Amino acid sequence: MSASLRAAVLDGTDRPAPKNCEEQHHVSDTPGASTPAGAGDSETERPLRILIGADTFAPNVNGAARFAERLAAGLVERGHEVHVVAPAANRKHGTWKEIHEGQEIIAHRLYSWRWYPHDWLRFALPWRIKQNSARVLDEVKPDVVHFQSHIITGRGLSIEAEKRGIRIVGTNHFMPENMLEFTLLPKAWQDWAVGLAWKAARRTFGRAESVTTPTRKAAQFLEKHTGLSGVHAISCGIDAHKYSPNWEQRTENRILFVGRVTGEKQIDVLLRALTLLPAELDAKVEIVGGGDQKRNLEHFAAELGIADRVTFTGYVTDDELRDAYHRASVLAMPSIAELQSIVTMEAMASALPVVAANAMALPHLVHDGENGYLFEPSSPEDLAAKLRHVLEASPDEYRALKDGSIRLIAAHDIQRTLSTFESLYRGKPVTDPVTYVAPAALPE
């Protein structure tokens, strides 16, 4: 569980939970009421009231939830008033203040149901989302609505915000294929379901004044499947200063994976690759994260005869995650469905070399021979070969890979991301930040 929610509920902790979603605490009535004394009177200077809508938010641990949390906290730190609409993490629902990344946001937690095919997912009720969206919008009166998913929360907020003439920004973190294993649909129906999901995305994102996604490749992917145009590529960004490099000499060969332990992450490919590494490397794998496939993968590791070399930590705190990056020799990212991969960026900020699948947006972050290597997706043989390149590198070669990660991550500073979104919230034209750093020139 994210450590950033450990101080969670400031208002409402000691009172009974609201009986229904309509029992809310009124926050304010007038847009811009949070403007501090002495602030400029112009539209471009006054703080904004921003409503972020998300189908997954802390304490959920996934890329979309972490981005929404960091975005909300970063905007508050810049002086804006930020509200977040998201499913309740348990049976308690209502409106209260929460602390995320050290900043106070106002959370509107919607009554939610648990989706039992998934190990933790809860969702707001689709048939009540318009009603709840209308209520929250009329109470908050935001300057802008920024939804992070088109599925339920974003759909309701976009419909009701459009009726009220509120500026809408939409960000896509979703690939329908990532949810197929949790739908329980027969394989024969899955292509049909994916088609419906993209049509729904087209309708919801079509209401937004600006549409964004984390990388240029992800933007092209969204445009192709929805027919939209002009999608902005804006990196999720990270607070790189929160991750410190470890320059100490390695004492073991430890391969790290961080993320949800689910099918699309292809962790089984990593386990197979471990069996192909030379015994003299004495390589170990550490898998940080939880998910529905954890038990199956533990059994699979035992079947492969490598259970004594594979550690499943489950969910960890932020401090424990930073320690994991410091213990590791290399990050392995076998997933084939990453629209950006915040984990890969965190590892790079920790000066880790990365071996990643040559799929979706990962080539934006990993450059062959510069900060790691790309391998053929789903190939344990190629993954093992690329891991050997890192683990058998000389000290100078290994240090060069670490330096490469630090250099390449500089383009993903979250402050650039925040500034770009602030411009979109104010209706200003923006130029997408340049986040793809060209590979370093090879010496002649």
UniProtKB/TrEMBL annotation:
Residues 61-240 form the Glycosyltransferase subfamily 4-like N-terminal domain. It comes from the Bacteria. Residues 1-44 are annotated as: Disordered. Keywords: Glycosyltransferase, Transferase. The keyword Transferase applies. PANTHER family: SULFOQUINOVOSYL TRANSFERASE SQD2. This is D-inositol 3-phosphate glycosyltransferase. The lineage of its organism: Bacteria, Bacillati, Actinomycetota, Actinomycetes, Micrococcales.
